[in-house]
Amino acid sequence: MRRITCDIHIHARPEQVWDVLTDFARFHEWNPFLVEAEGRPEPGTRLRLRFRLPDSGKEMVFTPTVLTCEEHRVLRWRGRFGVKGIFDGLHSFELTPVDGGTHVEQMETFTGVLVPFTGSVITQTDAGFRRLNEALKERVESLAAARDGS
Fold this sequence. Notes:
Layout: E1 2-10, H1 14-21, H2 27-30, E2 34-38, E3 48-52, E4 59-62, E5 65-70, E6 74-80, E7 88-98, E8 101-111, H3 119-148
Antiparallel strand pairs: 1-8, 2-3, 3-4, 5-6, 6-7, 7-8
Helix pairs in contact: 1-3
């Protein structure tokens, strides 16, 4: 098992972060890691996600199933490459209101027999998560400033 966790503080309300995070149709406009997303953030729904690894530029498509969707709080899905137990990922975004904005934690837990052999992919995924978080912050804060007239 391997786990990646990265977090960021965004100067906007959780509702504003949530709106950007769940607007899959616009991911291509701002998201450097999950460059394409289709589906609905509803439990039991399958998503179609295309991600781009930062170092290699290699793109992969996977179709995770949404497990949890608690509006303005938690979005969680499980994806698999191949059959269960080969290379599985449990991914989540957790939003927590804090003074001055929202704390966003993005996490993925990788399990399966191939995990020990996927170090470079997991390392690039970690870098991708960090880029996604920074891009999410930039997108949400710019939209919030435009709405607030700042």
